[in-house]
Amino acid sequence: MKIKVKVIGPFIYQAGFSEKELELERRITAGQLLSLLNLLEGRPKIMTRNGKAIAPKEELEDGDRIAICPLYSGG
Amino acid sequence: MKGWTGHLLRINLSTGSVKKESFSEEFARTWIGGRGFALKILWDELKPGIDALGPENKLVVALGPIAGIPAPNTGKTVVAAKSPLTGGYGDGNLGTRVTVELRKAGYDGLIIEGQARSPVYLNIVDDRVEILPADEIWGKGTYETNDWLYKKYGKSVGVLTIGQGGENKVLYAVIRSLEGRAGGRPGIGAVMGSKNLKAIVVKGSNEIPMADPPGMKKLGAEDLRKVGEIDKKTGWSLQGTTGVLSWCNEVAALPVRNMRKTSHPDAWKIDGERLNNARIATYGCPNCTMRCGIAIHDHEGRESELDYENVGMLGSNLEIFDLPQLASLNYLCDDYGLDTISAGGVLGFYADAIDHGVIEGNFKFGDAERAKELLRMTAHREGVGNFLAEGSRRMAQKIGRDSMDYAIQVKGLECSAYNCKFIPGMALAFATSPIGAHHKESWVIMFEITQTSRESYGPEKAQKVVELQRIRGGIFEFIVACRFPWIELGWDLQHYADYFNKITGLNWTLDDLFKVGDRIYALMKLFWLREFPDWDRARDYPPKVWFDPSNADKEGPIAGQVLEWDKYEKLLDSFYEIRGWDKRGIPTRKTALGLGLAKEAAEVERFAKLE
Q1: pLDDT score, position B379
Q2: How far is B156 from chain A (nearest CA, A)?
Q3: Cα Rg of chain B, angstroms
Q4: What is the DSSP letter of B109?
């Protein structure tokens, strides 16, 4: 299945990209995606699926757009 | 009394008198500093109903006990007055060398009264205070003014200035400091301009008083190093606050087209990654090791320093997705001393009103060149600029024809760069912000979208808004420090209570500090009530357009959804209940007395009843 990943803020320098399409051989959870992208280390991650909150244990679906963002307190 | 200088400097520009005044330990412990000091002084000394731009208004510059000491992010100063934009209590904070220098000069604040007969600036060097002619800098932008003052006094002084916006009393003119940008969104720069005061220059040579100087200096230096290391490790400063733009675009919260839309396919062109790639310099406030000001070349080749609010309001909100062009708009706002958030809100409203055919004019979304011209005209109150200088609420009152519905403001202050057409808790945060819509009080949006149900109007959201107000609009505004290490780097809030105790010699808990925050929030509301005795809860409503089903997104995560009035009313009730306020949104007598505001309650009851 294919998903799109959008990485936000300083995490893009950790992940090595800011946006790309990923082809996954099997279904994985949101938490496993962080591991796959070497994003487990560091500050807490806020994740959304198609603009809505997603918990680390939830499975990803084909066509999902996943955003990974650090904690902010505003501009 | 340890931890405070114990002195305020009162300067009357009408008479030229200068007085160094002492304040009591009780005053210090009740109001702590910053917003607390400013509010209490303005409450005690201003008569209700005065003209905010007249000589009766007072400009207060206020510092807190941890302001200026070498510890994480303590370079902030609060500026406050009765707001000419909202008619209520107004304040803001800005990072500036003034924070350090004013405390070293022996003051925890300035009270500036009256009105000079001709333009002046202040030069404060410890106990020596000069009121000097400002003819050579009046009419100049903040950059040129700052350079002129640096040439005269050297670069180690602290400087606050206004630009042409403040001089011409644009109702959303701010006070500027080149090191730390701008503060005083509700027109505090216009109040400074109304006093014919162009700039304040400060230099101090004393030690900032602390109960345990060696202990605090050691702790502060260690913590500054630690915060700097966390920043370096996490890379937060690489994009600073500007990563927020991409997140808002993902979750349908971006201001686009006067907040008609919540995302845009071109948003990436002005995001944090592009900004970091274009970076030519980085700026920060004194005592900061996580500097957030990213400077780039603007369209005209000038250096312009940006953060998220600037990019959101002058970029996406105006549908200007050209980074150098929006940097030009930001540069002009900074030079003229205009609030970038309100400027973006006002221009967005103007384009929207023209678009709706309710007013004739020459401005379209996306037209950066015309936006530059309009900013110049606004700062000088020329032609249509005189209309734009009044802010979106007054513009809508003049235009009529339902235009108030899409003036994106609360209490007259334009909303910051978060589109809340379907974010109930953040809409509540804007609506109950005590100076008008501002994100600095309670940025609940990320909690709301990722840790609760976005659809919920439950009391947990009101609770979170209050919790954040106690920390952000409370502690950080009255001890006076920047909040960024706390959330962005996970720097525990307890550190700030530790600094407070080490400096003052007190042994206060965070709960003790929260109570001060509640006292300040209650008195801010009483300030509004004294100005507007017919107060009703409608003044705590978000912009109407966020409730309009015809304004709902057609696609995306919140397609077809907008705020709902009956549910919002219940959320507002929850907020009032948690705060101990009545259905009008006014502290009850019991709440006021419980917070030690008996005298203030009696004063306000001369104008309106408390329940």
Answers
A1: 99
A2: 28
A3: 22
A4: E
CATH number corresponding to B235-419: 1.10.569.10
Task: Report the phi/psi class of residue B402: left, alpha or beta, with left for phi > 0 and alpha for psi in -120 to 50.
Answer: left
The answer to whether A8 contacts B235, with C-beta atoms less than 8 Å apart, is no
Closest-CA distance, B187 to chain A, in angstroms, reads 20
* Consecutive H or E run containing B441: none
Interface test with B, best of A8, A39, A65 (most B CBs within 10 A): A8
Q: In CATH, what number does B420-611 get? A: 1.10.599.10
Residues of B in contact with A65 (CB under 8 A): 250
Residue B34 one-letter amino acid? G
How does B117-145 read in b/e, with b if 16+ C-beta sit within 10 Å?
A: eebbbbbbbeeebebeebeebbbbbbbeb
Q: Domain containing A22: what range?
A: 2-69
Q: Which CATH superfamily is domain B7-203 in?
A: Aldehyde ferredoxin oxidoreductase, N-terminal domain (3.60.9.10)
Which of B249, B250, B420 would you mutate first to test chain A, the one with the most A CBs within 10 A?
B250
Low-confidence ranges of chain B (pLDDT < 70): 180
Within 8 A of A13 by CB-CB distance, chain B residues are 235, 238
Q: Give the span between the Cα atoms of B237 and B242, in whole angstroms.
A: 10
Residue B388 and residue B351 in contact, taking contact as beta carbons nearer than 8 Å: no
Residue A47 has which token pair?
A: 């994740």
Q: Can you spell out the DSSP letters for B31-45?
A: H-STHHHHHHHHHHH
Task: Find the chain A residues whose C-beta atoms sit closer than 8 A to any C-beta of B.
Answer: 6, 8-10, 12-14, 18-19, 42-44, 46-48, 50-53, 65, 67, 69-75
Q: Where are the domains of chain B?
A: 7-203, 235-419, 420-611
Question: A28 in a domain, yes or no?
Answer: yes
> Residue B454's closest CA among B415, B425, B419?
B425
Residue of A nearest to B491 (CA): A43
Contacts A9 to B, Cβ<8 Å: 236, 238-239, 243, 246-247, 272
Contact A14 B556 (CB under 8 A): no
pLDDT tens-digit series, residues B393-440: 999 999 999 999 999 999 999 999 999 999 999 999 999 999 999 999
| CATH number of the CATH domain containing A47 | 3.10.20.30
Predicted ipTM of the assembly: 0.98
B476 vs A contacts (CB less than 8 Å): none
Q: How many domains does chain A have?
A: 1
User: Is B251 in Cβ contact with A52 (below 8 Å)?
Assistant: yes
A74 in a domain, yes or no? no
B207 torsion bin: left (phi>0), alpha (psi -120 to 50), beta (else)? beta
Q: How many Å lie between the alpha carbon of A25 and the closest alpha carbon of chain B? A: 26
Whole-Å CA distances, B403 to B349, B357, B362, B407: 9, 10, 17, 7
pLDDT digits 0-9 by tens, A32-74: 999 999 998 888 999 999 999 999 999 999 999 999 999 999 9
User: What distances in angstroms separate CA B312 from CA B238, B248, B278, B392, B410, one per listed residue?
Assistant: 18, 10, 17, 17, 18
Q: Tell me if A18 is assigned to some domain.
A: yes
